[in-house]
């Protein structure tokens, strides 16, 4: 249960994204902004190239009840079809951008203590679709050259794809420094060091490398920050079976610890300090110097 001084130093304190995570997050955010920019450019092109472009209108002749011949402008069928295609293309670009943005936030999350930054960073993907769709939807319904059927279809498509983009851009349970710190604290208090195991599949990391979830996989080990960089943003909640699989001591109050971790992971609690393990009567439980080192590591996490 003990670890070297270097390992203890690296495993303590508030969770911090690794250099690899920060680099991946930066790349994803740049790509997200590029895709969002392209989506808004498509919107602008559709507005000025189709909806506000009088030169594309076709003359349509009609005869009224008195037999008087008159001509009027109409929105051409090809322009209507192109408008629908551009609305769909706009949605694809915006939604992919939002997915990349959410992925970046898992790699390098904001802190819940910075409330404004935390909200904006995590929900930006829900606001961008408003910019990318609201102006064009308004102009579709205000367009005097489109027929009622064209307005109804184009406006309906615009509203549908906008709502889909907004819904997919919302992060209902965003990652945070506090959530990752709670997972890191759990690892330290159960193992004595910030060392976990993970493989290609799934989104969780483990406290034991010999579990069935990792069988047949190329198992890697590293810190919780390394696991997040590898695309594993959460600690598994199968802690009891995993500790037993690696013949590690299981605290008496493990269920209480797991429920506390679950509450933080699911956004039901913001408190990142977990219950301290109860090692009373547990065989091979940390004691003496090992227990002192463990408690010092936890104090560093809790105080950060």
Question: Secondary structure elements and their pairing?
Answer:
Layout lengths: L4 H7 L7 H33 L6 E6 L5 E6 L2 H31 L7 H28 L5 H22 L7 H15 L4 E3 L5 E2 L14 E3 L1 H6 L4 E2 L3 H7 L8 H12 L22 H16 L1
Parallel strand pairs: 4-6
Antiparallel strand pairs: 1-2, 3-5
Keywords: Membrane, Transmembrane, Transmembrane helix
What can you see in these coordinates?
It contains ten helices and six strands, in the order H-H-E-E-H-H-H-H-E-E-E-H-E-H-H-H. The chain has helices spanning 5-11, 19-51, 77-107, 115-142, 148-169, 177-191, 224-229, 239-245, 254-265, 288-303; strands at residues 58-63, 69-74, 196-198, 204-205, 220-222, 234-235. The chain is mostly helical and 304 residues long. The protein folds into two domains: 19-169; 176-303, no CATH class. Helix 3 (77-107) packs antiparallel against helix 4 and helix 6 (177-191) runs antiparallel to helix 9. The strands form three sheets. It has a two-stranded antiparallel ribbon. The radius of gyration is 28 Å and the shape is elongated.
């Amino acid at each position: 249960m003990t670890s070297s001084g270097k390992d203890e130093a690296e495993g303590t304190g508030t969770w911090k994204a690794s250099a690899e995570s920060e680099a991946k997050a930066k790349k994803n955010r740049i790509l997200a902004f590029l895709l969002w920019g392209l989506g808004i450019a498509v919107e602008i092109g559709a507005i000025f190239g189709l909806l506000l472009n009088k030169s594309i209108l076709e003359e349509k002749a009609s005869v009224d009840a008195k037999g008087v011949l008159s001509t009027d402008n109409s929105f051409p069928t090809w322009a209507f079809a192109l408008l629908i295609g551009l609305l769909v293309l706009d949605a694809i670009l915006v939604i992919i951008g939002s997915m990349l943005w959410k992925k970046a936030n898992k790699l390098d999350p904001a802190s819940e203590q910075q409330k404004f930054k935390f909200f904006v960073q995590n929900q930006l993907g829900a606001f961008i679709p408003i910019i990318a769709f609201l102006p064009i939807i308004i102009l579709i319904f205000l367009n005097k050259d489109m027929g009622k059927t064209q307005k109804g279809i184009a406006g309906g498509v615009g509203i549908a794809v906008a709502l889909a983009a907004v819904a997919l851009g919302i992060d209902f349970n965003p990652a945070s420094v506090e959530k990752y710190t709670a997972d890191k604290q759990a690892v330290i208090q159960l193992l004595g060091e910030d060392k976990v195991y993970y493989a290609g599949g799934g989104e969780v990391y483990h406290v034991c490398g010999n579990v069935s979830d990792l069988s047949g996989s190329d198992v890697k080990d590293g810190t919780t920050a390394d696991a997040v960089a590898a695309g594993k943003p959460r600690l598994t909640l199968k802690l009891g079976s995993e500790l037993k699989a690696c013949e590690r001591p299981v605290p008496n109050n493990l269920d209480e610890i797991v429920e506390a971790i679950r509450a933080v992971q699911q956004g039901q609690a913001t408190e990142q300090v977990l219950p301290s393990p109860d090692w009373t009567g547990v065989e091979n439980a940390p004691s003496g110097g090992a227990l002192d080192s463990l408690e010092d590591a936890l104090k560093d996490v809790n105080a950060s």
